[in-house]
Design brief:
mainly alpha; 0% strand
Length: 71
Amino acid sequence: AMSLIRVPLYVHQGILNGDVVVAALWLLPAAALGAGGGMLAHHRISVRHFARLVALLLAIMGLLLALRGGS
C-alpha cells in the first residue's frame, strides 16, 4: 500500500524518471541471477561460512574505502 503512495511522489519529485526505469530494467537480469544464485547457495553454505564470507567482504570494502580516503 505504501508503494502506491510513494511512486507518484517519487515521480513528482523527479526521483523516479525514465532514466531510472531504464536502468532498473537493465539491472533486472542481474538481480534475478543474484537471487537465483543466492537460493542455490542457501542450502550449500553453512551459517558459519556465510558469516566469515560477509566479514571478509566487509573488511575488504572497508580497506578499499580507507585507501581511497572515503571519497
